[in-house]
Amino acid sequence: MRFQNAALGAAGLAAFLALGEAVPRLGLVKEEYFPPTSKIAGALGDELSDGAFWTALGDTLTGWAVGLAIAASAGIVIGVFLSVVPYLREATASTIEFLRPIPSVALIPLAVLLYGTELRSVLLLVVYASFWQVLIQTLYGVQDVDPVAEETARSYGLGTWARIRHVLWPTALPYVMTGIRLAAAVALILAITAELVIGAPGLGARIAVAQTSQAVPEMYALIVVTGLLGLLINVGARTVERRALAWHQSVRGEVAV
Fold first, then answer.
1. Angstrom distance (rounded) from CA 137 to CA 180
2. What is the pLDDT of residues 111-144, one digit of tens each?
């Protein structure tokens, strides 16, 4: 089954690349707007041999990784804190629902005003967008804790930290991992967006330069790189999630009776 799925995936990718080569060659789209796959591949090879490309890639991954780490840590800690302190979840619900829908791109003027085109501007946008993914999932996870298990832990004299470790955390962990996986994708999107709009160092800035200089094949090559990054991040996040939840029935394929 795995071999069949891999073969079908490879066939689909080959068909997509062939379509990308044929459409401009047949004149359906002008090559100056959408170059053939072969030209994009050549431009990608040139990018890979350029040291500035790897520097930009490192800048993008730095903004993504640092921002995601901050957002995940803050989301987990604050989510658990809001859930275990009596009445705090209810007191902050309206504030969370007000702040969460604000688009991160709306904060771009504020980021530029505070930090210019520095890495901190990227981090501000990445952390703000990713934080809510983790926080909301953590809140849902804590809310899903079995009241019977909670009361049983209390009756056995377990303290707050022991209940968090042995009762709350195992229940919330699947939700937390889902939040981190979603936040990882959002963090990459915001990192590229910040670089593209603000001009912070990274792949987004190189895409903007290629677009303004009419280097269309190079622009598409860089876009392909961002897509590959997104794919690798998603695969990596799912792998970490499966390893972290190896004990959970959703991963083991068990059916609860």
1. 9
2. 989 888 888 999 999 999 999 999 999 999 988 8
